[in-house]
Amino acid sequence: MDASLLLQLGANGLSVGLGYGLAAIGLALVFGILGQVNFAHGEIYMLAAFVLWWLVKWFGLSYGAGFALMLLLMAGVGLLMAEAVFLPTLNRSFESVILASLAVSIILQNAVRLVFGATPQRIATPLESVNLELGSVLLFGQRLMVAAMAIASMLMLSAFLRKTETGRAMRAMAQSKEACQMVGIDPRRITRITAMMGAALCALAAGAMAPMFDLYPNMGTDIVFKSFAVVIIGGMGNVAGAALAGVLLGVAESYAGGLLGAVFRDGIGFALMIAMLLLRPQGLFGKSVRV
Amino acid sequence: MTRFNILRMLAATLAALVFGAASAQEIKIGFPGPVTGPASFLGQHMKWGAEQAVDEINKRGGVLGRKLSFVMQDSVCRPADSVAAAEKLLSQDKVDVLLGDLCSGATLALMPVVEKAGKPMIVSISTLPEITAKAGVGGNKWVFRTVANDLMLGAVIARQAAGYKTISVLAEDTDYGRTAVKLLKERLGAAATFVSEDYVKPSETDFLPMLTKYRSTKPDAIAVYMLDQQGMNVMKQYLQFGLTMPLIGRPPLVSPLVTDMLASGKFNTSWTVYPYYDQYRSAENDAFAKPFTEKNKQGPHYVAFGIYEGVMIAADAIKRAGSTDANAVREALVKSNYKGILGPIAFDANQQSHNNLMLMTVNNGSLVVKELVSGK
Fold first, then answer.
1. How would residue A46 be classed by pLDDT, with cut points 50, 70 and 90?
2. Cβ-defined contact of B36 to A218 (cutoff 8 Å)
3. Per-residue pLDDT tens digits for A180-199
4. Which of A74, A140, A160, A190 registers the highest number of CB atoms within 10 A of its CB?
């Protein structure tokens, strides 16, 4: 076992893990603030990737311009999600939002298959052939961008939640919906904002990560499972916890996959998730409602 | 009898005539195949291939003066769903012949279904050897297979792989992947060292840990056994890693979607053995591949070729049987000597045919058919 392999696996794990974190923040945010589980999270990711592909392929936009426009469109989709799923189920039991978001995920998957077909697609990015070599460790341009975006969006989100009026209102909502109404915070407005931000963050992950792989209508399935694993390990609804849990999962998977073999890679994620639910159901970083 | 009753009887007779005629008219071929799920891209190609065969046959006047039709039900390429789809095809659509699913696990699950129903099934895509072993003499007499199985492919692949000293394996974690690797290892024996073996779930898209390992262990070749979409992701990431060892076994070199990656020249000396490749030039293949490409804007994938010939063989057997009676069709299938695109197709005692196979290599950035090799 040579040191360069271990270093490379570590670097891979960090970059992949930050990607997991980025993909999971949207889910963690919606759960943390609204207390609602969004099973359509993976399909929002998939839709964002296809929208980006569509903008680049059919309107000839550059990757950057397409990415920016796609984020706006996906925030709009988040608003639709709020109107169609989160608002009608806001005061109902948690099963109704699970069913409603599952319905959205099935509709989106099949709608995309109907419109764009099942043939896998690819998005070309200016960074895809850029590699950086640090000693013996190979770093990939696109993966570095994912890592940078994950860190930046995490810092910005936490600043937003702490420093702005809206952010504080969102945190208040996470603590108590009833108390919010008493002090004049409109839960419906917060729901819309949270859903839009959740969708946009998910779209940010899709725009950065999807070009590394193929695009196909089922691509959201794996993302949603990984995101749930990350959110459970990090503590349901804990945004910073999700980021750290993502890194932890990424590094663990990388070493398991590289040293033990590919079959151990997925096992480790779910084993961590089960262990967490058994031993520390509030997650690694606890405080399930804090954001 | 009142006038109302007479009218009612007339209407009933008329309806019986119309519906009776419709059901007598069409000979149905049913296919439980993936419309959704990770293999849906291949399912699409299979649908196109089958539809082309049906169109061609109907243009020539159909079979036994009746029109041929093709019905596909979604199997997601999973055993349980495939069985459900087949049950539906057999009981509701009342198909006369069934085509085997794409994924071997699903096709295997279909075997007892057709045995119970007493309907012939033609397997033109799944390559698990067990299907051959369980069919024909002493086994399931309803299952016929036109595609070479992994034992046959493995024998040809192992012959080609003889020169490599060290090999790493990357395969999907299914019957298909694991069996193919087992065969390769058995055939090569001590002549090659297997540096690493990785089995990944069919929906895995990230191969960073494995490619990292290859970069550090530098095997002579990487044996890849997976479906196209997944293999394409491997190839894409392989390019990013700047690796240069050849991909051997069953990498998806034939997929129309990797042509631009091959053009980079980084896959030169990679090779594979497939039942079919659309760029192979012969009058028989042009007659199939050209109209296909024109209509679907993509060259036919080998699964499209397989199912196209499957439908043709079914139609040929029904014609020779002179009826759609399942036993008569089965008898006719046993005696098949169909002139296929790559050579004659006939079935052995296990109802397996031994079509010619194609050995293909990447040469100067494009895939070429090096030779047709016997599937015997």
1. very high
2. yes
3. 888 889 999 999 999 999 99
4. A74
Separation in Å, CA of A166 to nearest CA in chain B = 38
Q: Which residues of A touch B242 (CB under 8 A)?
A: 131
Q: Are residues B204 and B296 in the same domain?
A: no
Q: How far is B119 from chain A (nearest CA, A)?
A: 31
Same domain, B34 and B135: yes
Residues B65, A163: Cα–Cα separation, whole Å: 79
Q: If you count residue pairs, one on A and one on B, with CB atoms under 8 Å apart, how many are there?
A: 99
Number of domains in chain B: 2
Distance from CA of B143 to the nearest CA of A (A): 30
Q: What is the ipTM of this complex?
A: 0.75
Closest CA to A33 of A80, A78, A99, A84: A78
Q: Do B212 and A263 touch (CB under 8 A)?
A: no
pLDDT digits (tens, 9 = 90+) for B153-191: 877 888 888 889 999 999 999 877 888 898 889 888 888
Determine, for residues B209 and A221 on separate chains, whether the beta-carbon distance falls below 8 Å. no
CB contact under 8 A, B208 and A129: no
pLDDT, mean of residues A195-204: 95
A236-259 burial string, b = 16+ CB within 10 Å, else e?
bbbbbbbbbbbbbbbbbbbbbbbe
Contact at CB, B216 and A8, closer than 8 angstroms: yes
Per-residue pLDDT tens over the stretch A215-269: 989 899 888 988 988 988 888 777 888 888 999 999 999 998 888 888 888 888 8
| Assigned domain for B365 exists | no
Question: Cβ B43–A216 below 8 Å, yes or no?
Answer: no
Chain B residues in contact with A4 (beta carbon < 8 A): 216
Chain B neighbors of A118, CB-CB under 8 A: 36, 40-41, 43-44
Residue numbers in B near A258 (CB within 8 A): 209-210, 212-213
**Could you tell me if B318 and B269 lie in one domain?**
no
Q: Is the sign of the CA dihedral B200, B204, B208, B209 positive or negative?
A: negative
B209 & B112 share domain: no
Domain of residue B234, CATH code: 3.40.50.2300
* Chain B interface includes A215 (CB < 8 A): no
Q: Is residue B373 situated within a structural domain?
A: no
Asked whether the beta carbons of residue A213 and residue B205 sit closer than 8 angstroms, the reply is: yes
Query: Could you tell me what percent of chain B has a pLDDT over 70?
Result: 94
Structural domain of B346: 7-148+283-355
Instruction: Please report the domains of chain A, with CATH numbers, ordered by start residue.
Output: 3-279 (1.10.3470)
- Dist CA B254 CA B298 (whole Å): 12
- B236 shares a domain with B328: no
Residue B6's pLDDT band, with cuts at 50, 70 and 90, is low
| B374 within domain boundaries | no
> String of b and e for A108-139 (b: at least 16 CB within 10 Å)?
bbeebbeebebbbbbbebebbeebeeeeebbb
Note whether A262 contacts B205, CB cutoff 8 Å.
no
Q: Inter-axis angle of helices B283-296 and B40-59, to 10 degrees?
A: 110
What backbone phi and psi angles, to 5 degrees, belong to B338?
-85, 140
**Global confidence as pTM:** 0.74
| Cα four-point dihedral sign B103, B109, B111, B113 | negative
The reported pLDDT for the residue numbered B12 is 58
On whether residue B196 sits in a domain, the answer given is yes
Which residues of chain A neighbour B257 with C-beta distances below 8 Å? 119-120
